[in-house]
């Protein structure tokens, strides 16, 4: 079947048959790379730089006067914007509050799935479901679970005689914890899959050797399993922190930032600023502050990772 | 062996708890979707509808242009997946096979692009697309989705390319095959499953995407499924639960089916991308 193409003339970029493939003329890679590189530059790198520049302007939607440079005025305003810092604080609580339980629960599940248990196939399939669902559907689904009347949560509480339940998503005290639970549920699959992949790379012999030496489960975990999955665990946790801090759709559907701004994540805040009030420049400044915060958090995290690497 | 057996029992109990936690919201969604309005209003909703009905589905289609929205989602997701894979595969090939400055810069971008909040990207994109008159159009959305899917596509595809031994290509070259011919008849067949998996993954992420669609599409007839779903929830947060559940259930089915097909490959591909050589 390959002989059909045999007769064809080699493409202009193909080197002669005598030449080793590694030393093809250098325009080869460019010709392969450009189709992806141009969209990346035009629709990702360019806009990101443009976005950073916008933070230093008074850009607004639907304005007829030309946009002006205003230096750091947006950032000075932002510094005194207590609503934004409150939202920023909520964002941090949310990001850490989701990432930490997500990691612990995912680690537990991954360790279980790594065992030789029956029903493992069912758990593996189920563990993937939240990953495949559109975030909007996850939000809708949990709204129905949390619904004060028709929701399963209050119904279960009533059945167990634990009171009448409450309106979880509109209670000032319960709204943030309630959305955090949803965040944990929605993000567990990726983390589990990543950790499970790490576990499957752990040398089994080491485990058995440690068991023969009389090491208990906790010791075996600490000395054999954890060192093996540590790089993956750190990487997925860093990514989770970023993704969670930047998350939008879940909370938009669940509470839209309410009640009284108790769940207004920074992304929701910036979205409203940009597309409800049309303050493009100011919203871009918020985005810049978020990037800066993420970069600092990542730097601290990575520094800790390097230091930990020396002692481990 | 007593403690051993007890440990097993504990493991099964824990696994069961996980299963319940993961499954119950979805089961409740399905249950709600098939409940008649009277049961939804009752004070003691049951797990299994006493009188299952399709009325919610009918009402959902009457209330919102779901078919239209599904078609928009399909167009956007399919086009984005195909374009993303077509342009990402050659680049991933170069990234995997050569260790130049370009490959390093591209990998750097893959990582950095994850850290930027979408809001910083969408404001300039909104302005650019507005100048190009691509706001409120599915083609504009596809362009955004392609670039948005690229980091992950490059990541996965680079891993798949690395899994194809370079020695195979060298052997083909020694046998006298040209560069293009080597790519077409040696590399491509080995890469095909990975390409399909990447395309399907890009399809799911685009099908599920909400934020860009919310910002870029204003006309109801052009909106995608996730955006239309939020219309079931009123301004005051009050929602007609039955139709909402029915529509949400339907919107999930395509992603679930596609995901079931590629589940194994996705996990493999993520791993492959992570392996450093």
UniProtKB/TrEMBL annotation, chain A:
Keywords: Cell membrane, Membrane, Transmembrane, Transmembrane helix, Transport. It comes from the Bacteria. It is found in: Cell membrane. SUPFAM superfamilies: MalF N-terminal region-like, MetI-like. Pfam families: BPD_transp_1. PROSITE patterns: ABC_TM1 (PS50928). Residues 88-301 form the ABC transmembrane type-1 domain. InterPro entries: ABC_transporter_permease, MetI-like, MetI-like_sf. Residues 1-23 are annotated as: Disordered. The chain crosses the membrane at residues 30-56, 92-113, 125-145, 168-188, 232-254, 280-303. It is a multi-pass membrane protein. Residues 12-23 have a biased composition (Pro residues). This is Sugar ABC transporter permease. It comes from Streptomyces edwardsiae.
